[in-house]
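Q: What changes when zinc ion is included in the input?
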Amino acid sequence: MDAKYLDEHLRKSMRYSRESDNPNKGVVAAGLIFQDNIVYATSEKFSDGRSIHAERNVLREYKERYGTLPNNGAIMVATLSPCHCLSEYREGGSCIELLTGSDEEFPNFSIAQVYVGFIDPTQSIDSHLQNGFRLTKTTAQDQYFNPENYGKPIDEFVKQALNDI
Ligand SMILES: [Zn+2]
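A: The predicted holo structure follows.
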């Protein structure tokens, strides 16, 4: 898929986040694209500190809407690159495990490509090479992460990360 197409869906995932009235919505948005099927979701953060990452929520949303996840060839857009660290507060394992067939909830799912708004500064594109999917980053960051346009779903961490790039 070309960058323009993926940028459009990245933008739509952010719009989805901005317009969501879920009181628990978190700061990361994601979309899952397979052929003509597309869903969006956000991360969620709860008062007890527990969180569900956007990548997991978008798989749940897709499965709920379409009944089953795509076997191969799906593309994910996400405002932030997928996590690989341990976290006791996150529901389920890391998003890298989730996207590479190593997840308990979605053991047979693996993604073909992940297209992100920016790379978590603790990671690098090179660190994702071994994951078995293609990770690329938009070049249109100013447009997506302008706080005037998309400030609402983006927390301080994201703003700081962008300043650091
Ligand atoms: Zn994650």
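Observations recorded in class: Residues 149-154, 159-165 have pLDDT under 50 and may be disordered.
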